[in-house]
Design a protein that fits this description.
By secondary structure, this protein is mainly α. Helix content is 55%, strand content 5%.
């Protein structure tokens, strides 16, 4: 009887795994807090605070993933994300999925040939999401800074109904110019 010797080989680096789980968990937190902000007004402000924290963690995880793209010597390097577009392997993988695992599983190493182009698209979408979320947060915090710190320089027509609270502050300078800012 012939025995096979199996050798354990690390394919994904620890940094890649850390970035993966950071992105996955922060995405779940962003989805949950985004839903709470939209559907539950009673906890919207607290959910928004947690949403910003989860967004910051997401951005850090994405920065780590981008760093791994250039520093990893294994399968996390950017060269391995470029799809080789082997239609034969992609078709075999599709047949395997459509047969619910009854067809022969094609041999591949690390990245699934059918999903490889999607990995690259997802990475680009995550960069776009982090960029737009960061821009929105910067704009919102800038407006909040202006509303809070320029109060003394504004004319008497300035009114802020909920000054000093954590609720949204509607700041009106005049009838012609209105600025809404949130904490």
């Amino acid at each position: 009887m012939k025995t096979e010797t199996l050798h354990r080989r690390e394919i994904w680096s620890k940094w890649l795994r850390l970035s993966h789980w950071t992105l996955a968990l922060s995405t779940l937190a962003l989805m949950a807090t985004g839903w709470l902000i939209h559907h539950t007004p009673s906890v919207a402000q607290a959910a928004a605070d947690w949403h910003y924290i989860a967004g910051s963690i997401f951005t850090l995880g994405l920065a780590l993933r981008i760093w791994v793209l250039f520093s990893d010597k294994r399968m996390g390097h950017w060269r391995f994300l470029l799809p080789d577009l082997e239609p034969k392997k992609m078709l075999q993988m599709l047949k395997f999925y459509l047969s619910f695992g009854k067809a022969t599983l094609p041999r591949w190493y690390a990245h699934n040939p059918l999903w490889l182009p999607i990995y690259l698209v997802l990475l680009l979408l995550m960069v776009l999401a982090a960029f737009t979320g960061t821009c929105k947060a910067l704009i919102r915090s800038s407006l909040a800074f202006i509303c809070r710190h320029c109060m003394l320089a504004l004319p008497r027509s300035f009114h802020c109904s909920s000054w000093g609270t954590s609720s949204p502050c509607s700041c009106t300078i005049s009838k012609a110019v209105a600025t809404t800012c949130q904490r």
